[in-house]
Write a structure and sequence with these properties.
Helix 1 packs across helix 2, helix 5 runs antiparallel to helix 8 and helix 6 packs across helix 7. 54% of the residues lie in helices and 17% in strands. It is of the alpha+beta class. A hairpin with a 4-residue loop joins strand 1 and strand 2. The strands form two sheets. The protein has a three-stranded antiparallel sheet with strand order 1-2-5. The radius of gyration is 20 Å and the shape is globular.
C-alpha cells in the first residue's frame, strides 16, 4: 500500500511521533493505523526504558492556580538539558501534569511512594469489605484489583490522563520521552487547597 502524506499526518496527530517514525510504522503494517499506533507505542516504551537511567537535572517548576485562587499546584518536571526544558512540548507537558494534580488530586507519585502503614490500612479496609465465604485465591484476586484501582486514585503516574482517559500519565510521559529524546521525570509536586489539610 502506498503511504500518503495525509496518512502520516493523521498518525502523527494521533500519536505525537515524528514524521519519519510514522511513515516507517505505516509502511511496516501496510497502512493499518491501529497497528501502526501500537508499534509506535511499543517503540516509545523501548526508547523510554533506555533513557530511564540517564540523569535529569534540568527542567522547570510549573505553577497552576485554579478556582480564583482557591486551589494551587506546583510541579517540578525534570529533563536532561535546558534546551528541551525550553521547548513548547516540555512546557505543555509540565502544564498538563500540573492540571492533572489539580483535577485528580494525586497524593503520591507511584505506588512505591505510598507509606507502608497507609497501604496496609487500605489493604485491611478492602479486605474487610470483600467479606468472608470466598476462597483465598478469589479474595486475593479481588484485593489485587481493588488495590490497582486505589493506585489509580492516589498515584499520579497511575492515573488516567484528564485530557484522554484511555492514556495514563505514565504513558503520556513515555510518549514525550520518545518524542523529545530525553529522560523526563516528575521530581515532586504539591497541591494546595484553601481550607484543606
Amino acid at each position: 500500500m502506498a503511504i500518503t502524506v495525509d496518512m502520516v499526518k493523521i498518525l502523527r496527530e494521533r500519536t505525537g511521533a515524528g514524521v519519519l517514525d510514522c511513515r516507517n510504522a505505516l509502511e511496516e503494517v501496510d497502512g493499518d493505523f491501529d497497528e501502526a499506533a501500537k508499534l509506535l507505542k511499543k517503540r516509545g516504551l523501548a526508547v523510554a526504558a533506555k533513557k530511564a537511567e540517564r540523569e535529569a537535572n534540568e527542567g522547570l517548576v510549573e505553577a497552576y492556580i485554579h478556582g480564583g485562587g482557591k486551589l494551587g499546584v506546583l510541579v517540578e518536571l525534570n529533563c536532561e538539558t535546558d534546551f528541551v526544558a525550553r521547548t513548547e512540548d516540555f512546557q505543555e507537558l509540565a502544564h498538563d501534569i500540573a492540571m492533572q494534580v489539580a483535577g485528580a488530586g494525586a497524593k503520591y507519585l507511584t505506588p512505591e511512594d505510598i507509606p507502608r502503614d497507609v497501604l496496609e490500612r487500605e489493604r485491611q479496609r478492602q479486605f474487610e469489605e470483600i467479606g468472608a465465604g470466598k476462597s483465598e485465591e478469589i479474595v486475593q484476586k479481588i484485593l489485587d484489583g481493588r488495590l490497582r484501582k486505589y493506585y489509580q486514585e492516589v498515584c499520579l503516574l497511575e492515573q488516567p490522563f484528564i485530557k484522554d482517559e484511555e492514556t495514563t500519565v505514565r504513558d503520556l510521559m513515555t510518549s514525550k520521552i520518545a518524542k523529545l529524546g530525553e529522560n523526563i521525570k516528575v521530581r515532586r509536586f504539591a497541591r494546595f487547597e484553601l481550607g484543606a489539610e
